[in-house]
């Protein structure tokens, strides 16, 4: 496929664009992920909390693609954080996926009130040392959480997956990540498909390039060097969302998109999500 790779801080290559499968039922995940793999996707973002690791894994196995050609991300849910619990929980995810390693394992949320992300990360370091997770990272970590992790543990996260789209651009987090060699991955990259895609600025840019608003947004992410994992269960949209490698937004387009930042989240605040 024509999706470029981002090289993570441990040398692992990760396709810059993949499919997210939040809110996809386990039974549906097999056909949705199967369609995406057939359409050129080589990265899939699931989580234990999505309850579709089994259906996702089935699609990967049934695709017939060599294991090393598919990049699989899953995540540990808050209630399973803790050293021993993480090791057990990881085994259960692998079993459901039907795989013997994952490409990227993420702490889904820092859940600061639980105060377990440091010990959870130490278990992640063991999974990485054992080669069962080829890269380890976090999700929804603010710079304060990342700073503490880097002070109290050995390995700098390869990735931080955060809410990120033109209406919530996270300048401070992105700057912190680049300073420390952490790749920024955008969740809800399309703003969950709600109001964002109806923004008139996107409409104008879409008409200018003969593309859809979703494609303009994905192009913005790619040009900002984000990893991006748009979700869709609709085959035509799955195809549309990966068909973004043959046009370029110019400086003026990028400037207009920069102006859309509202500073407001659609999702939960990591400080209070437990
Ligand atoms: P998204 O921003 O990817 O939006 C998906 C929605 O946009 C779809 O349900 C559909 O309604 C619409 N859509 C998709 N393609 C479209 C197109 N081409 N044209 C018009 N509408 C289109 O939302 P998301 O699912 O929240 O985020 C993507 C992925 O990010 C998730 O599936 C999940 O893997 C990940 N995620 C992670 C976290 C986290 O806490 N780490 C939180 C949310 C999402």
Question: Main traits of this protein?
Answer:
274 residues; alpha/beta; TIM Barrel; globular; binds nicotinamide-adenine-dinucleotide; AKR; oxidoreductase; Oxidoreductase
Give the total of beta strands.
10
Give the overall form: globular
Uncertain segments: none
**How confident is the prediction overall: mean pLDDT?**
97
End-to-end CA span: 38 Å
Order of strands across the biggest sheet?
3-4-5-6-7-8-9-10
CATH superfamily placement = NADP-dependent oxidoreductase domain
Structural class: alpha/beta
What portion of residues belong to β-strands? 5-15%
- Give Rg in angstroms: 18 Å
CATH architecture: Alpha-Beta Barrel
The biggest sheet amounts to: 8 strands, parallel
GO molecular function, one term: oxidoreductase activity, acting on the CH-OH group of donors, NAD or NADP as acceptor
Protein name: Oxidoreductase
Keywords: NADP, Oxidoreductase
InterPro entries: AKR (IPR020471), Aldo/ket_reductase_CS (IPR018170), NAD(P)_OxRdtase_dom_sf (IPR036812), NADP_OxRdtase_dom (IPR023210)
Description of the structure:
The protein contains 10 helices and 10 strands. The protein has 274 residues and is an alpha/beta fold. The chain has one domain (5-258): NADP-dependent oxidoreductase domain (TIM Barrel, Alpha-Beta Barrel). α6 links the parallel β8 (159-163) and β9 (183-187). α1 runs parallel beside α2 and α3 packs across α4 (117-129). It is globular and about 55 Å long. The mean pLDDT is 97. It binds nicotinamide-adenine-dinucleotide (NAD). Nicotinamide-adenine-dinucleotide binds next to α9. Residues 17-260 form the NADP-dependent oxidoreductase domain. The record marks 75 as: Lowers pKa of active site Tyr. GO terms for molecular function: oxidoreductase activity, acting on the CH-OH group of donors, NAD or NADP as acceptor.
